[in-house]
Give the backbone structure.
Amino acid sequence: MGSLEQTVSSTDHHGPAKGITRWLYTTNHKDIGTLYLLFSLNMFFIGGCMALTIRAELFQPGLQLIMPEFFNQMTTMHGLIMVFGAVMPAFVGLANWMIPMMVGAPDMALPRMNNWSFWILPFAFSMMLSTLLMEGGAPNFGWTFYAPLSTTYAPPSVTFFIFAVHMMGISSIMGAINVIATILNMRAPGMKLMDMPLFVWTWLITAFLLIAVMPVLAGVVTMMLMDIHFGTSFFDAAGGGDPVLFQHVFWFFGHPEVYIMILPAFGVVSEIIPTFARKRLFGYTSMVYATASIAVLSFIVWAHHMFTVGLPLVGELFFMYTTMLIAVPTGVKVFNWVATMFRGSMTFETPMLFSLAFVVLFTIGGFSGLMLAIAPADFQYHDTYFVVAHFHYVLVPGSVFSIMAAAYYWLPKWTGHMYNEAMGKLHFWLSFIGVNVTFFPMHFLGLAGMPRRIPDYALQFADFNMVATFGAFLFGFSQLIFVYNVISCIRSGKKATARVWEGSHGLEWTLPSPPPYHSFTESPTFTRPHRNDDRGG
Amino acid sequence: MSSQAYYVPAQSRWPILASVSLFLMAYGAGALINALSSDSGGLLGLGLLLLGALSMGLILVGWFGHVIDESGQGLYSDQMDRSFRWGMSWFIFSEVMFFAAFFGTLFYVRVLAVPWLGGEGEKGVSNMLWQGFEATWPLMNTPDMKAFPGPEGLIDPLHLPLLNTLLLLSSSVTVTVAHYRLKQNRRPQVVLWLLLTVALGCAFLVFQVLEYIEAYQELGLTLQAGVYGATFFILTGFHGMHVTLGTLMLFIILLRVLRGHFAPDHHFGFEAVSWYWHFVDVVWVGLFLFVYLI
């Protein structure tokens, strides 16, 4: 690694600016990464409060706390905020922090656009949240906003929802373009694509998915806007359109979208497990190909969300088989993670605990997904709590746990301090128990026939709902431990070494902890970690 | 030049200003549209929208001006140039996917939804909604003629649309000729060919407006004329907006050429606009085939 001072024409390369302008005007990938992560954490708590509102209402049958109308607004906003405000920005934040350091670049490829990508988000979500105060209330049609609920029967605030979605889309597309340009153009000399850490690989593929499908989301909300305000009939059969068309276009976006939320998680876990198993990743190449296959398949499975809507039989069969095909590359991944741990000298620090829980619980979510993929069975499960259980298993102990794992894994690198390990473990165990207590009973509720998105339910569902609500509050409040741990890690704590973890490898660990404000102003020398016998020892 | 360090710009206030403008535009547009739909004025929305658009325009001028200055100072390495190229390529790919959503809509409606409503195919049972409805394409008679009165006539593809096809195709040629002349550093020729390209773009837009007037006033082909009108206007409308933007960008490039910008071997701004123009052209070919002709 060369000197960190650069003489050639790169102006103003000193430390961060003082005060608020540092954050408003920044072009630094670390600052922007931090902004993304803090924004995401905020949204996680806002969306979490909505989830707890939902669970509190469902604690007992009957209407106790809120009106059905408001309940619908809560389910809608909870979904939108968690998907677009919490999970996606968290992964973009991790990408911002880690990709330049992992590929040995001075920063992201287009630093000013990077700032713009972030700062659109607070405005977009302010607009989205402001709909709660508008006449007629916030959007109440579910996060999937199916027409005609979101067109003919929507509250007036739907217009602001549409423009908020447009803003998020612009932000995501620009962020993804930046990620791709950085990965393809900014790697340290000598680093080939197949030398890249898996987190970088998964993000490259995720960014491709984002650029491919966010415009389709923009298209579908635009058609909604036209139907609502300008008299078109895209989703109205009276004019020759079709409400089912909405679902096709939406899920053409929506299915790749769910992989956008899980592929970077695969990347994170593929970084962490080798570190704490003290072995290199088993089957690096197959991991790359599996990720790419999942991405390709994600474009031809969308209608498995619509089995009960009245598709032609050939469509049901096609989408059933392609969906089941996804289990193959996903199985390769799970196998590789397990094989990486096989005969490794494992230790169980907090990031590893979250990653292990990820492998087990994400796989449970995958299996319930496989059940849902079977079209005739899905006629039973569709729109029940079984679906809610399924996607919360892949999103909470899936995506969210991987984000937690990543935060613990890289916090010492970011802050220069070790976090409190005992508190981290406490956070993990409470989260692990909370998640399972919340979502596991939902499988039973769904199989017994409890529909999703209702504020009231029949008496026979009472016990499991009560259990789920206990779990949700346990999970929700245990996240405060995480916040406390992060704050105290930023402020103080044992000094972290550059390597941080005994088994870590990769360029980011060659930098001091915390890394200088501008890392790798001169390209580092790159040696191949995946090719030689580097066991990270 | 390739050994030069990658230029990481210092702090910049353009992005945050652009975020504020974008917010004003989005919020203003939302307020305006809602007000128009409920007939309750809309001055606030209109004001915010215009304020946002105006400031966004100024910001873009400032931001791009900044980039042009930096480029002129030689701060950008070849690697930086590649970043711009990747950025523009993927931006165009995102635009392709945006249009793909609308083309997909057109094909779905035409091949599946409308025939089903007419009683054909596996979901022909939906014919019971409007018995007697017959599926045709273009859809002249909608299922519910009261709510969505179908068009009385159609645009003849072999008049204005064919002319527009020729105009846009030749504009793609002229912009490429301009590019070659720039590489040969024959600047007066560059100006001439660019001017011609801008003129062709403007002519296209004029004819498109004439076509819209004809559609609305004589043919009853409107946004409300059922799903044929809806797909027709969303595809041609968004394409028209892209031509407008492309023509504006070409015009700015022309002004920059007149000011002496761009070197024969270093002119990515020019190339980016030309890529964009070719993209707009290719979309039009798709439109001409699938919206007008077939």
About this structure: Chain A has one domain: 21-510.
